[in-house]
Design brief:
The complex is a heterodimer of chains A (66) and B (236). With 66 residues, chain A is mostly helical. Helix content of chain A is 73%, strand content 0%. Classes of the chains: A mainly alpha (66), B mainly alpha (236). Chains A and B meet through α1 and α2 of A and α2, α4, α5, α6 and α7 of B.
Chain lengths: 66, 236
């Protein structure tokens, strides 16, 4: 079992990187008027693809042979 | 005040499916942490500051040591990289969120993302507040579930395996609703097929990043097609 200091470090690192993955698009495209048309297009289409990916992600460990 | 209450009142029923899922999965996470011999405070800290379901289950193993920071960073990045998609999808929706925007970004989990892209505020209810309460309620359920699980799990052993299927069911329902509302089914089909193909090729532990790349390639290809048909940019 790791020390208290290391535990704080683990929570901090995992929290920081998780936040990074969530915030990255907002940093890259900070100003609304500068968002390229292609990115707007992705914003419209990705929710559908992402939800499909999420369904597969949840079912990934289901074995058909079970 | 009244505005806030009406937004909260409208947001609550929308979050009920996530509430069921988060309470159960949260309890499962708390039980796991307690089973590993971790004090309740760590369970609570993780659910408040990390707030990423599957990642927290993975991170529970980090505490058994030895600590390798590079591994922790890379595993976290690869488990959570799918969030980039959610952010790209929410650029427009969060644009005018003001002071609430940082919290909206922080709390953009799979489940919150799926609700935010499938619902809009009823007539007369402030849209931004409505979204904010959905995000906030969801995190409250998660924190409550995991703290409850941590407390109960330290008292008795608790079989919580398989309960996360509640969440899968929610995703399937939302996927179906999106399918019915969409004119163009290509993004949804691309999402499912690319992920399935990558799952078969790369296996369950490493298929997310290749899936994302494949989805981007398919969407990019379908972005160019109509442009060419219009004769706008030509072949470049």
């Amino acid at each position: 079992m790791v020390s208290t200091a290391a535990s704080v470090g683990i929570v901090a690192v995992v929290a920081a990187i998780t936040l990074f993955t969530r915030a990255l698009p907002f940093f890259l495209f900070r100003r609304a008027e500068r968002i390229p048309r292609f990115v707007l297009y992705l914003g419209e289409t990705l929710p559908f693809s992402a939800m499909g990916m999420l369904v597969v992600y949840c079912l990934k460990s289901v074995s058909v042979r079970a | 005040m009244n505005q806030k209450r009406s937004a909260l009142k409208a947001a609550f029923p929308v979050t009920v499916p996530v509430m069921t899922g988060y309470l159960f999965i949260g309890v499962a996470f708390g039980v796991l942490m307690a089973g590993n011999g971790r004090a309740l405070i760590w369970t609570a800290l993780m659910s408040v500051f990390i707030y990423a379901g599957s990642m927290q289950f993975v991170a529970a193993n980090f505490f058994t040591g030895p600590v390798n920071w590079i591994t922790i960073a890379l595993v976290t990045l690869s488990v959570n990289i799918r969030h980039v998609f959610y952010g790209l999808s929410m650029l427009g929706k969060f644009q005018n969120m003001g002071r609430k925007k940082p919290y909206m970004i922080f709390s953009l989990t799979d489940e919150t993302f799926s609700l935010l892209c499938s619902v809009s505020a009823p007539e007369g209810v402030d849209q931004n507040r409505f979204y904010f309460f959905i995000s906030l309620l969801n995190q409250l359920y998660w924190v409550a579930g995991s703290v409850l699980g941590g407390a109960v799990g330290s008292l008795f052993p608790f079989p919580a395996k398989g309960i996360d299927f509640a969440m899968t069911a929610l995703f399937v329902v939302i996927f179906t609703e999106q399918w019915e509302s969409a004119e163009n089914h290509l993004p949804a089909v691309a999402g499912v097929l690319a992920s399935l193909a990558c799952l078969l090729v790369f296996g369950a532990s490493g298929f997310i990043l290749p899936s994302m790349i494949a989805i981007m390639l398919i969407l990019s290809a379908s972005y160019r097609l109509p442009e060419r048909a219009k004769g706008g940019n030509g072949h470049g």
